[in-house]
Amino acid sequence: MRPAPDSTAGNWSDCASGNLVIDTTVPVVDPVVANLVDAVAGGRVRRRPHGRAASRYATGVLIQTRGADHGVAARIARAEWFIDTDPGKGKGHALPAADGRFDSATERIRTVVSAKRWLAGTHTLYVRVRDLAGNWSRPTSAKITVRFRPLFADGFERGNLAAWSAASGSRRLRVTKGAALEGRFGLQAASAGAAAFVADRSPQKRDSYRASFVFDPNGSRTGGEGQVVFSGLGGGGGTLFALQHRTSGASREIRVVARTPRGFAAGEWLELADAPHAIDIAWFAAGDGELDLYVDGTTAAQLRNLRNGKLRLETVRLGPSANLDDSARGAMYLDSFTSSE
Q1: Which of 52, 115, 122, 216 is buried most, with the most CB atoms less than 10 Å from its CB?
Q2: Measured between alpha carbons, how far is 293 from 84 in angstroms, rounded to an integer?
Q3: Phi and psi at residue 334, in whole multiples of 5°?
Q4: Which residues on adjacent β-strands are paired with residue 87?
Q5: Mind listing the pLDDT tens digit for each residue in 5-64?
């Protein structure tokens, strides 16, 4: 390699030489072992009596594996994990080396991550590593099933509202076979004019909450308002989060809103077909609190960094409860409500 000449005199230096090493060897990851554990603050594992498994509703996941690099400049430089959908290389959640530093060709990985904000069910957890040259391994995976402690459930199969803590506008609420979206009965809630909702007070000062139900607009019209279909309230009755539904002309949309220290954060309005939909909502109070909306099993909206750590959930309402317009018409169908921590 010869440097450029002197800019004024035109003199050239002697040639210099060196070795250029190109490492394209892909590192590898051993099979991943992922087990539920009872985690405590800081990601540590809560010790349990010898031979006793983690609790049924454990929310810690102990990840164990090993990455190895057999390239020219052999060294593992980074590891990451993700669940279900690949976010792209380098965009997963970082994993630490078991000894605290990535500085050798073989690195053991053993750490606990939180599943508290995952959806309930079976997930595929992936791990991959990157070497010093920037080569990424193929991800290896393990299946893990998470459950959350149930709080309340009602599919209206008893033909009445007796399971709920309260009902508002009971004359505008009907449990009928015609409203059934799953099973034999469902809830029909009038959309027009006045509130028509059922309330559940089982949350009791929760800082995390999940709810799922089936929602069918059933041709109802909201008069252009963002009518509240489902909401969570704090101890003073203030709204902590809500799912809104609105119609205007031929369009039909939903969105979520969540309380923050400065008011409310709102998601984008999302188009919704006039048909039954599986709705899942997950709310978490923390410095990095969030509200997630899933429609028919797909992530529809995520409100992040809500800074709502001091808020606690006391009550939820299902059915039209706020932003009620006199020009609203029709009735919606609701069914198969369940909630958990």
Answers
A1: 115
A2: 17
A3: -135, 145
A4: none
A5: 555 677 777 776 666 666 678 899 999 999 998 864 444 545 444 445 557 888 889 999
